[in-house]
């Protein structure tokens, strides 16, 4: 259920129609709608929204309907309902006893709806401000090992496959579940996603690919340790970027853009658990930017096949836990 609240004549109904593609035929109105909720959908389209919910409360109160029970029945029967109500708790306390009781009852019911709602939006001058949103569980998994990983090479743009050992390991472990998967376009990530999330829809996002290591692509430390440019990169703690490659800031910027693109898609699909099957650098970039409490880039290094679980709340990732592939239960248990 989603709850839309605001003052009188602030454009609440127009906002809902515009943002949810709802028509008058999909709405029941507290001014004129029948009080018996069992009659709401007879001869009508499926109801998607209740407008002027506060007026239903007034009319139910006046006719001595069991309001709390009715509200529970509405929430149970119409789980995806959008409820629109005007705030009436401000201003002078009414002299009329019924209106005072209505004001109190509406305030208490709206508090309950806000607590139970997946999303709460306040409307002011036709502009919606989301003041509560459903938390989203996020799983970040680094792809399994490749030959380049075993040889401790900088594997960025090189599109190599997983080792046989990695495939066996990924195929036989129980990873955290997900309703949808976002994946780097590189083969090692797509393979990893196919073994961990066999029956889950996956979407490739170009921006989730690994950092471009430039002239050091597929080299290891022993091969480049004497080069001056590489020594300068080491001294900068990896911030100055690779010759002919990406700087850390360039890499982080496009990674975070891709992450938020995925989050928008997940919210549009009303998903609650999503996974990213990506690269070690991608995970480090995301958590360097969004971890709460914050830890810097290198704190978030994970091994191949390992990962991190977190909860996205208020545009930050918190409740963060590391996933150790070796300790995961076997798939056949």
TrEMBL record:
Any single Gene Ontology cellular-component annotation: cytosol
Pfam families: CobU, His_Phos_1
Signal peptide: none
InterPro entries: CobU/CobP, His_Pase_superF_clade-1, His_PPase_superfam, P-loop_NTPase, Phosphoglycerate_Mutase
One of the GO biological process terms: regulation of pentose-phosphate shunt
Database matches in PANTHER family: FRUCTOSE-2,6-BISPHOSPHATASE TIGAR (PTHR46517)
Name used for this protein in its record: Uncharacterized protein
Source species taxonomy: Bacteria, Bacillati, Bacillota, Clostridia, Lachnospirales
